[in-house]
Amino acid sequence: MPEGPSIVILKELVPQFSGKKVLEVNGNTKIDKERLLNKTVVEFKSWGKHFLILFEDFTIRIHFLLFGTYRINERKESQTRLGLIFENGELNLYTCGIHVLEGDLNEIYDWSADVMSDTWDPAKARQKLLLNPEMQACDALLNQEIFAGSGNIIKNEVLYRIHVHPSSKIGAIPKIQIDAMIREARQYSFDFLVWKKAYVLKKHWLAHTKKTCQRCDLPFKKEKLGKTNRRSFYCENCQQLYI
DNA sequence: CCGGTTGTTCAGCG
DNA sequence: GCGCTGAACAACCG
Q: Is the whole model's pTM more than 0.70, yes or no?
């Protein structure tokens, strides 16, 4: 569920509730559910891994973390975190973090940092990267201020596509590879979106969870790397280490 | 049945 | 106040 493209898929499934009034609220969320009652959804948005439900005076921010899921016009057995019932159906959210955001969303979010946004700004991403020469490539691709929406799968696939070792330092990577990283972070996210919709995402993984490199047939390394200490799958032979 | 995880936050420590 | 570490959260798969 959690990476950016999955949130975009959710966003595409809910316009049926845009402009509709919340007739009933349920779930074990700690936020004040009364506040949503009889309010009308203005719009649904997303920023990276955040799913946003906009009301007139406030916004509900949903983060699915590792295990979050949702159901539209159906329910799961497990406890609902937040359920919104409209005249034409319902949106049920499970195992997610929920926050209420006050004020102007444009002051909270830099939309151009979202790799899937129409306003994604590769030049800004490049600037941010160059300001962090000591940062490791694997950490950069998980950094939500630089690549909002990118997660561990996208990280591993992008680094494999651009032939860069996850422990490479940003400042030592040739500029042409930095540009490739930025380009592929977006491109792979859209490939992810298409494949996920067609239920063929895993089939297209070339690095994530893989045992062997399809380019050179040598075994992949599997290690927890970087400050983020997340699983990296990489080929020592095909992915260059820049230090 | 146990181990692991598409993620983030926060407490605790030096 | 900082940076770092590890726990906590919690559902599902193999």
A: yes
